[in-house]
Structure formats: C-alpha cells, structure tokens
Amino acid sequence: MTSTDSSVPVLPAEVPVSFDDILAARDVISAVAVETGMEHSRALGRMTGATVHLKCENLQRAGSFKVRGAYNRMYHIPEEDKGNGVVAASAGNHAQGVALAASKLGLRATIFMPLGAALPKVQATKDHGAEVVLLGNNVDEALAAAKDHATKTGATFIHPFDDEKVVAGQGTVGLEILEQQPDVDTVITSIGGGGLLAGTAIAIKELARRQGRDITIIGVQAEDAAAYPASLAADGVVSLEQLTTIADGIAVGRPGNLPFSIIKDLVDHVVTVSEDQIANALVFLLERSKMVVEPAGAVSVAALMSGKLKDLGLAPKSVVALLSGGNIDPLLMLKVVQSGLLAAGRYLTVRIPLRDRPGELKNVSRIIAEAEANVIGVDHTSIGPSLGMGEVYITINMETRGHYHSDHLLEKLRESGYEPEITH
C-alpha cells in the first residue's frame, strides 16, 4: 500500500493497467455509460467534520458501475469471435451490465445465474436481451457452468473483475470523481473482487501525482465476507470458504489476481463494516439522501458513519464516498430497512409479563404515550409454559427516536414496576 504521508507517492513502474488504458476506455464506454452525478451530503459532513460528496453509480445504466467494464471488455472482442457471443456468471449487477453491453454491441449473451438469484435481477437481465440460465446453488457453481459453456461454444467469457479491459473500464469512475470534485483528498469505495477499486485507484493516484499531491484511497468490505484484509496481510491472494453478508454484490471469496496486484500497491487502507452498520447506512441514504442503494453500494457510507476514518487517524477535509450500485430486491429492502431501524434504535419490541386484571394494559399504554413512543403492534398471550396462573404476556412493537429514547422508555417501565424484555 502507498504511504499516507504528505509526500507525493511514487507509483509502481509496472502497473498492469495504465492510465492511458483508462482514458481510452472512457472514449469507448461513452456509447453506453453515463457520467453519474455527485451529491453533497451535509448530514454526513456534520457527522465527520469533512465535506462529503456521494458519487452516484447507483444511478448508472443497469443500476451499477458494472456496465463500464463489461462494455469496454466486449468492445475489444476480435471480430472473428463476435459471432460466438459472450457468456458470464453473476447473481445480479455483472449480469445486467453484460446484458446491456451485449445489446448495445449486437452480441448474443448467455448469463448463468444461481437458482437463488433475486427475481427482479433475473428479469432485468432478460429485459436487456440476454438468455438467462438458472443453475447452481451459488455464484461459484454458476461460474463453473459459464466457463464450461465458453469452452463448448467458443463464446467469450466476460470475467466480472479479473480482466485488464474490465479494470480499465471501471477506472473511468476515478476520472469523473476528480473532475467533479477537484479538491477531494479521500475516496472511499467498496471491494468485492477488486476491479472497481483497482481501476479507480490507478486513475486517482495518477491524476493526483500529476497535480503534485496524494489522495487517500480506502476500500471497504463486509466483515463477514472480507478476503482482502487477509490477502493483504499474507501478501498474496487468500480464499474464504464461507461468506455471510447482506451485501451480496461484494460477497467474493477470492480476490482477483489482477486487481489484488494493483490494490496492494496503490490503495492506502482496507476496512470492514458490520451487517448492522451496512443496514444503518442504507436506511440513512434512503431517509437523508433519498437514494435507493443496495447493501454493497452502501458500505462506503457505513465506513464513514461508523468512524472508520477516525479509527485510522485520518481527518480529511474533502471526501467522496462511491455508491457502487442500486440493484436491491424489494423484499431484501424491507428486511434491511427493518434491520437498519433496529440497529439505529428506531424500532423496539418488548415483551412484558402482566397480572391478568383490568387496567394493566391501559397503564402500560399510558407510560409509553408519556414517553412519546409510537405503538405499531400489540400481541396478547395468556397461555405459555413460563406463565403462572393469573399472568399474561404482552408483546409491543414500537417506533422510537433512537437508542437514547428506547433506553428512556425502558427505564420508565421499570420505574413503574414492570419487567420489559427486549425480544428483537
């Protein structure tokens, strides 16, 4: 990783993807990708003490940055191979990016997706004109099937991140960041296989070098699907056997060899965030920025909100957090929003044992009302193995204003002689 002192970094002599490759990719992808916006977040600025902007790749065509790399890779397929079409494997964003790019280039696309892929993502991929094959229990099994298809048919396999043209295409995001926010000193983005971070790092570090300064680049992974910290510590690619995260877009068990070789030299820090922190960031983006962002796209904001920069000893003045995608299944959105509300102390469920006599529920309701919490559901149970004669349980679901408000309500209930048990 590069030094974060005030000196201008010396870039490695042999970078597999050059800055000129990224400039060339920009011209190529202009036929399909749009220059996404940069939104100022005053709320994040108040949290961090920095000026914070959001780079909105969630508003990119096909819903994520993936179309940039996919189109650049497919544009360079030799003419004699184009008739065999292209093949890819993905649970979502890469599938849609490849499908859209293929439709623009007039190529036949076959996309292998795991059986559990979200239906909206499957349908969106089909809507872009690709043939979708549902096969395998996970992306790895779909990937094996896609490679087998390429061998048998001669179709060109489009890797989601371990490819020079793909990395160059993703690097065009870095060009836009520096043009839209010239004074940025810190850029934060998600990492899955590493294509986006690698390409962005090349573009940003080279532009900063030409300006005689450095820009800190931070990658973010979900802590239960974080192959990069272990790989960087080992100075070599390390595979994870198990991945558990709501951020399925960055749930990659093995870093790409090409992106890793770039990231280990150019990226300053890699941090991880928890599932609760991701959910909390997603809810924040919905409420405060009016942005629909998938969990993988929200990890950059999760890192900001959870104080990761402060933990690193950084005090940046101008930060850009990249929102890498917005393709979220509505059913997952419901679950994540509820999880985010719980993590933020905005939703509280308690079970309270009561004497089965008139007025008890009314008294509990009065305490809740005086504490200014909002009841959204009540369940009354009079039969259970732990209930004595003349006892009942009530389970109350409430909206609260945060952890301090929940704690205040629980304290008031206990002061009145009740024994509330948090059940969420």
TrEMBL record:
Keyword Lyase carried by entry: yes
Protein name in UniProt: threonine ammonia-lyase
Keyword Cell cycle: no
Pfam assignment, any one: PALP
Protein family according to the UniProt entry: Belongs to the serine/threonine dehydratase family.
Keyword line: Lyase, Pyridoxal phosphate
Any one biological process term the GO annotation gives: L-threonine catabolic process
CDD domains for the chain: ACT_ThrD-II-like, Thr-dehyd
Domain annotation ACT: ranges: 349-424
Enzyme class: lyase
Listed cofactors: pyridoxal 5'-phosphate
NCBIfam families in the record: ilvA_1Cterm
GO MF annotations in UniProt: L-serine ammonia-lyase activity; threonine deaminase activity
Lineage, top ranks: Bacteria, Bacillati, Actinomycetota, Actinomycetes, Micrococcales
Coiled coil: none
InterPro entries cross-referenced by the UniProt entry: ACT-like_dom_sf, ACT_dom, ACT_ThrD-II-like, Ser/Thr_Dehydratase, Thr_deHydtase_catblc, TrpB-like_PALP, TrpB-like_PALP_sf
Enzyme Commission code: 4.3.1.19
